[in-house]
C-alpha cells in the first residue's frame, strides 16, 4: 500500500509484528519535506506496533537532515522498546553513515527479508 504523507511517498507493507516502509522523496529536495520521523511514527502508532524496517533503496543520498530524522525515529522507537532496522542502503549512503559514525547505530541489512529475520543470509559454499 502506498501512503502519501506530505512530501513523502511511503510504500507500506505489514508483516507479522512488523511494518515495512519503503521511503521515496515526493520531490527533489528531501530537506524541504515535513519531518519523516513523525510520519513513520504515525504509521507505527496506527498499526499498533513499534517494529519497523525502513527500506532506503530509493533514497539517493542521506543528507544530514534525513540522518537526523532517522536518529530521532530510532530513539523514539527505542523508548517504546521497539526495533528499527534499515535495508537497501547504497554504497554511498553506507559510506555517509560510516563517516558520521552511525553505521553501528542503525542495524543495516541487504533487503527487507534479512531485516525482518534480523540476520544476513550466509552464502552457501560447496563442501
Please describe what this structure looks like.
With 127 residues, the protein is α/β, with parallel strands linked by helices. It has a single domain (2-117), classed as Transcription Regulator spoIIAA (2-Layer Sandwich), CATH 3.30.750.24. Helix content is 34%, strand content 25%. The protein is built from four helices and six strands, in the order βββαβαβαβα. It has helices at residues 36-47, 64-79, 91-99, 112-117, and strands spanning 2-5, 8-15, 18-25, 51-55, 83-87, 108-109. Strands 1-2-3-4-5-6 form a six-stranded mixed sheet.
Which short descriptors sum up this protein?
single chain, alpha/beta, Transcription Regulator spoIIAA, six-stranded mixed beta sheet, 4 helices, 34% helix, globular
Q: What proportion of the residues is helical, as a percent range?
A: 25-40%
Distance between the termini: 43 Å
Low-confidence stretches: none
CATH superfamily: STAS domain
